[in-house]
Design brief:
Elements: H1 2-12, H2 19-31, E1 38-41, H3 50-57, E2 66-70, H4 79-84, H5 101-104, E3 109-113, H6 120-132, E4 134-136, E5 143-145, E6 149-154, H7 158-163, H8 169-175, E7 178-181, H9 189-207, E8 213-214, H10 216-224, H11 230-244, E9 249-250, H12 252-256, H13 262-266, H14 278-308, E10 322-325, E11 328-331, H15 335-344, H16 361-375, H17 380-387, H18 391-401
Parallel strand pairs: 1-6, 1-7, 2-3, 3-6, 8-9
Antiparallel strand pairs: 4-5, 10-11
Helix pairs in contact: 2-3, 6-8, 9-10, 9-11, 14-16, 16-17, 17-18
Length: 403
């Protein structure tokens, strides 16, 4: 089994030797030989998307179609049509008959990612498919049959969703025929540095950079960090260091500047299941905005100190009046100049600048979402990841604010 396990890791690019990770892969290979439904759990960024492929590719359905569906990215009004299809004229805009995923993937495997975000009405339809393979297109009364293997995944506490009436317990037990838990990166400390070296080597080969390395103290810091974003965050940090650092051997002091995580470490944490609530969502946006402003103020102090020390030419002194008292910066800037002064400083092309009279919760929320969409070129998925919310919540907020 060890040889098979290693070949599976190599085929799907899985790095690590942690027993919990090996156990998850072993369960995926074993359950692949059956048609049982599987529920994969684990935090965002741990690599849950590899396991449905392992299950499909090692099953009797491997020659059939495989499709991955992000349930949190499809608007509530259209998700039934996407999954189960619709008849011509079923609703405004339904100009043709459409076959849904459960019909077109007959004989194959469907991976339902973020399954906990499904609306209750869709959960009922999904339960019927799991129980007897039957479904009905939107706008039809004809019962259709399908033979589809369902693998689902979630990064939220479904028990909490059930307790709040947001997820059906009978659907949970149907999906959870065989559970697979993918451990968080902080639970696999021995795998962190090998993953770092893999990402550094890949980046080096792709962009012809000398590979980055860490000294012993930096390696220890890497292993002890909590990695709230898991493997996805580790990869981004590795790529940032590889690109920005001139020295190829990175010290712990340098590494620490890349491991700041005000959202996950220095501010109160919100469980993903709570972020759907409007009040908590607004509070989370405010936390992020405050953290951003704290960073900007800190950098602004450094800029002004450089101005005082004469390190910048006088023509760059856009702050027309300043003074230092007891090592604390005291800026005297008129109301009209305040926002432009921050925005015009070097390195502030991506800063979120909001006027003082625009600091209501709704306005902060609206401007933060607008800025996230702008920085990500209108890509809602990337903007939602940056904001730490689901795409469904972002979609609702975009409609609410008319963005």
């Amino acid at each position: 089994m060890i040889a098979n396990l290693n070949s599976i890791k190599q085929r799907y690019g899985i790095i690590g030797f942690d027993p919990a990770l090996d156990r998850a892969i072993d369960v995926a290979v074993q359950v692949a030989r059956t048609d049982l439904s599987v529920l994969i759990t684990g935090e965002s960024g741990v690599g849950k998307e590899n396991f449905p492929r392992i299950i499909h590719d090692n099953s009797r359905r491997k020659n059939g179609q495989y499709i991955a569906v992000n349930c949190g990215a499809i608007p509530e009004g259209t998700i039934d049509s996407e999954l189960f299809g619709h008849e011509k004229g079923a609703y405004t805009g339904a100009v043709d008959l459409r076959r849904g995923y459960f019909e077109s993937v007959d004989g194959g495997t469907i991976f339902l990612d973020e399954v906990a975000d499904l609306p209750l009405s869709t959960q009922i339809r999904l339960l019927r498919v799991l129980e007897n393979g039957e479904f009905i297109r939107v706008g039809s009364s004809k019962v259709l049959k399908t033979n589809v293997r369902v693998v689902a995944a979630t990064n939220v506490d479904i028990a909490d969703r059930i307790a709040k009436g947001k997820f059906r317990s009978d659907l949970y037990y149907r999906l959870n025929s065989v559970p697979i838990h993918v451990p968080a990166l902080r639970e696999r400390k021995g795998d962190i540095y090998p993953l770092f070296m893999k990402f550094a080597t890949d980046f080096s080969a792709q962009y012809s950079f000398p590979p980055i390395q860490l000294d012993e103290e930096a390696q220890r810091m890497l292993r002890e960090y909590r990695w709230p974003g898991n493997i996805r965050q580790l990869k981004h940090v590795t790529e940032q260091i590889s690109l920005l650092e001139k020295e190829r051997v990175v010290t712990a002091e340098v590494l620490s500047t890349y491991l700041t995580d005000p959202i996950g470490s220095n501010l109160p944490a919100l469980r993903p299941s709570e972020s759907e609530n409007g009040d908590n969502f607004q509070r989370e946006i405010l936390f992020k905005f405050i953290a951003e402003m704290q960073r900007e103020i800190s950098e602004l102090k450094g800029v002004v100190n450089q101005l005082i020390a004469g390190r910048m030419p006088a023509s760059d002194k856009s702050l027309h009046e300043y003074k230092l008292r007891d090592n604390e910066l005291d800026l005297e800037i008129s109301h009209e100049q305040r926002a432009p002064a921050v925005a015009d400083l070097p390195g502030y092309t991506n800063a979120i600048v909001i006027p003082e009279d625009d600091l209501s919760i709704n306005n902060v929320e609206k401007n933060t979402i607008s800025k996230a969409l702008e920085l990500n070129g209108g890509n809602r998925k990337q903007a939602a990841q940056e904001l730490g919310i689901s795409e469904r919540t972002l979609y609702r907020k975009i409609k609410e604010y008319g963005l």
